[in-house]
Amino acid sequence: MEILRINNVHKAFGEKKVHTGVSLSLNAGETIGLLGNSGTGKSVLLRSIIGLEQIDEGEIYYHDKRIDNLDEEEFYEIRKKISYSFQNAALFDSLNVFENIAYPLFEHTKLTEEEIHHKVDDILKVINMPHAKYLMPSDLSGGMQKRVGLARAIILDPEIILYDEPTAGLDPVNTDIVIKIMNEFKRRGFSGIFVTHDIPSAKRVCDRILILRDGKIYFNGSVEEFNHSTDPFVNTFGSDHRGQHAIP
After folding, report:
1. Cβ–Cβ under 8 Å, residues 156 and 186
2. Residues with Cβ < 8 Å from 62, sequence gap 6 or more?
């Protein structure tokens, strides 16, 4: 079942045209990988989905509801169902791990404090950080901060998670932990869009791979189709150098 649809989206920053007709769809329970050279607007597309960027042309639908034309207040409800996992985790420096993860629950639910603690304890087990509840962000490694950011992204039980480079800058051990968490989220029924330069991780998580090029979706296929493509440009994404592969 299709739960998100992007139709012919255009976006420019001044004279720089980033998107010139992007169209894609996301199905329930599916995770898609969004690849592309630096500057092709992968993160811009994620931000456009939840209203952090205003598109110039086209439409974005969540289920059958058009959402690109909503005002800021109307987007509050959409952001409960479409969650954004920021590349740098975007934790509040002055709040501990519990407070960071629980923040959306205090803001958007009527759960008791006891219920919130129980929910946070459960998600801390999922991200394998059960003893980090009262640590501050400054006490955490970069990989642990990203895991806390992932926990906060799903604490409201959204339908879709937008992953913005969740493995960027991580060593192989922490990358493996993050990918296992993403696959656990997938197993629990969350859908996702995974923006990344990390090709091996995309193959481990995603049902389909999409490639942005020249402002449009250039390739859209299964991981198997991606692996066996004879297209020279698609093949430039075949390197297994995590996050380091330069696309000509």
Report:
1. no
2. 3, 4, 78, 81, 82, 160
Placement of tokens 């692996």 in the chain: 227
* 64: helix, strand or coil: coil
Q: Which amino acid is at 66?
A: R
* Cα–Cα dist 109/48, whole Å: 25
Question: Per the structure block, which two tokens stand in for 226?
Answer: 């991606």
pLDDT-derived band at 76 (thresholds 50, 70, 90) equals: confident
173-184: burial string, b at 16+ Cβ within 10 Å, e else: ebbebbbebbee
Residue 165: both structure tokens together: 């480079």
How many angstroms separate the CA atoms of 89 and 64, rounded? 30
Bridge partners of residue 13, in order along the sequence: 16
CATH of domain 2-90+161-235: 3.40.50.300
Q: Give pLDDT, residue 245.
A: 36
What is the identity of the amino acid at 118?
A: H
Task: Report whether pLDDT(242) > 80.
Answer: no
The model's confidence at residue 7, banded by pLDDT at 50, 70 and 90, is: very high
What is the number of other CB atoms lying within 10 angstroms of the CB of residue 140? 18
Which one has a higher pLDDT value, 244 or 172? 172
Instruction: Confirm if 63 and 82 have CB atoms less than 8 A apart.
Output: no
Residue listed under structure tokens 């696309």: 247
Domain ranges of the chain: 2-90+161-235
pLDDT tens, residue by residue, 163-178 = 999 998 889 999 999 9
CA pseudo-torsion sign 136, 194, 178, 153: positive
Q: Residue 152 is inside which H or E element, if any?
A: helix 142-154
